[in-house]
């Protein structure tokens, strides 16, 4: 499920390659998940210990003043005993503790693909952020070039008294503003790469070249909301985990209630004595049946704690279901809006490309044109279209993960 990834990042780095690194076992999020599995295993072992075989060596050193009628008048009454105890039956308490611990452990293990899926989405989101930072820089760079030309033209015209001081200052201000925006975009290029490097667990190796992903949106229509919600509520990993944890909590309540019940143990004891006495047994095998007659406050406390844990887990499950319904509705609506927006942006891109061709043709014929503005418009629409596509793709990834799917792209 989780793998160790090679030390060197591919160059250029593709979305698929980045996604595959989500299972890097050296990342702290997966280390935490493995720690949770180990903790659950320790609880299983602790529960199994209650029915496990126990062996203990007992050494007793004693000095006595023997009775005058005793056959052995020696004063050394020391002994060594090897005692072996095996609980046979405690009327279901320990077995239900074991079952509860095993139920929770298996649930946590089965939840691991979901945690890796969350990392896949985080990586994809940051991968897209890097590409958007490059597109935003290209947009701002085009805008800066246009404003610079306008500012230089304004200075020349100001020298000829064709532009006022106010207009020249306005042109300079516009240039400085877009120059500042381009500098911010340049900073964001490095910052977004640093975050991606951290997510990929390669903090010292910033990915410089990323392949622009070819996202396929064909044949992937979203189903109606009621059908989608039913599917998510049935297969959602968070709900499945919470339900198993609720089941384990219920088993612990039952186990706590059975602790005030009879207990049957088998015991074998082998002893060696310093004194010879008729009451000394070299070995002994016995069955011990313990029947409680009074329920003390300790048992009542255990039952109360178990019931409180069950109620807390039930509340957690209900909270997950409430938040999940809201999350699914928000994603479903977002996907519908972004899908329609995608078609609008495609039309806008076609229009701007045609306008750029027209401006370029006029420029080549040395006719006055707005070629610079047309190039800025192309950079702008490329950024907006990519941003819309990335948000749409991420929303669908999240919806697939909420539906229990692990192959997200």
Which features would summarize this protein structure in a list?
elongated, alpha+beta, 4-stranded antiparallel beta sheet, 409 residues, single chain, 9 helices, 64% helix, Outer membrane efflux proteins (OEP)
- Describe the oligomeric state of these chains in a short phrase: single chain
The largest pleated sheet is described as: 4 strands, antiparallel
Pattern of helices and strands: HHEEHHHHHEEHH
Q: What would CATH call the class?
A: Mainly Alpha
What would your notes on this structure say?
The chain has 409 residues and is of the alpha+beta class. It has a single domain (15-65, 74-402), classed as Outer membrane efflux proteins (OEP) (Up-down Bundle). It contains nine helices and four strands; from the N terminus they run ααββαααααββαα. The chain has a four-stranded antiparallel beta sheet, with no helix packed on it. α2 packs antiparallel against α3.
Write the layout of secondary structure elements.
Elements lengths: L14 H6 L7 H22 L4 E7 L18 E11 L3 H18 L1 H48 L5 H35 L25 H11 L1 H21 L5 E11 L9 E8 L6 H68 L6 H32 L7
Antiparallel strand pairs: 1-2, 2-3, 3-4
Q: What can be said about this structure in brief?
A:
The chain has about 400 residues and is of the alpha+beta class.
